[in-house]
Protein-L-isoaspartate O-methyltransferase (Paraglaciecola psychrophila 170), 212 residues
Amino acid sequence: MRLTSRKGESLAQLLHKEGISSAKVLTAIAKTPRELFLPDALKHKAYQNTALPIGQGQTISQPYIVARMTELLLESDNQVQTVLEIGTGSGYQTAILAQLFTNVYSVERIKTLQFQAKRRMNQLDLHNVKMKHGDGWLGWSSKGPYDAIIVTAAAKSMPKELYQQLNDGGRLIIPVGEENQQLHCITKRGDEFETKIIEAVRFVPLVAGDII
Ligand code: SAH
């Protein structure tokens, strides 16, 4: 399968109307065949701006939020080259990141999902992604520090290990909360952290210490 999608273009146009302004992000959305990341029964909904189930009680994120989180990485003061993603899931967000950044590392706790996502990266010829089956609360310290870390599941509290794996000036994008979740954009400045609350979001929980 090639990295090109006619329907992806209409999704990009829709996201532009919803307020996504980065041309780089919109181009990546336009080129990515989202149906590849969905089970057969849901492929017909691939270009709707909604989260959808991908099995194992997990979801593929809403395209708007994938685009918004990616845009926040591009708006970072530091030029982002190396990104760590926590919660590979379907691999859709991973595929978008791989088109925009030099090196992408992604950690997933559910082996079956990780396996499927890895196959999809190969199908799309995205070879700058490394994946790991493990607990994302711990990050992936041996590959860090990272210019940015993006977490695609909601954390009850801040995962301290992730802060430590950021470069100075690096950015952590993370949904925080349980019932009421807010997307946080945290920038590391020396020993200090600057936090901006972006908007209300709805993610599956970031599960601690239970690898399956
Ligand atoms: N960006 C993904 C979102 C998947 S949902 C997509 O669009 O497809 C969030 C993912 O985080 C799930 O696959 C879930 O299994 C994973 N997850 C939850 N807790 C985790 C943890 N502690 N470590 C790694 N992955 C985790």
